[in-house]
Automatic annotation (TrEMBL):
Keywords: DNA-binding. The keyword DNA-binding applies. SUPFAM superfamilies: AbrB/MazE/MraZ-like. Residues 3-48 form the SpoVT-AbrB domain. One of its GO terms (molecular function) is DNA binding. PROSITE patterns: SPOVT_ABRB. Transmembrane segments: none annotated. This is AbrB/MazE/SpoVT family DNA-binding domain-containing protein. The lineage of its organism: Bacteria, Bacillati, Bacillota, Bacilli, Bacillales. The keyword DNA-binding applies. It holds the Pfam family MazE_antitoxin. SMART domains: SpoVT_AbrB. Gene3D superfamilies: 2.10.260.10.
Length: 77
């Protein structure tokens, strides 16, 4: 797909066609990351940081309480 850049203040801007925005599920609030590679650049949405759900955190805590000392002792071997 070809597109052009346009002057925008002291920089340049590139439009993103509606069908591409829809496929990528992005809007005007989406943060984008630009990677420069092989004489070109790639633009992709920044993934939101995933959080651990409460059940998984509870599982980790319970596992550490039950087996934590044993696991730490194995590290010292």
């Amino acid at each position: 797909m070809a597109t052009k850049i346009h002057p925008y203040g002291g920089t340049y801007a590139m439009t993103i066609p509606a069908h591409v925005r829809k496929i990528l599920d992005i809007d005007e609030d989406t943060e984008l990351e630009i990677d420069i590679q092989d004489g070109g650049f790639f633009v992709k949405p920044v993934k939101e940081h995933q959080t651990l759900d409460d059940d998984f955190l509870k599982f980790l805590k319970e596992t550490d309480e039950k087996y934590g000392e044993t696991m730490r002792n194995l590290v010292d071997r």
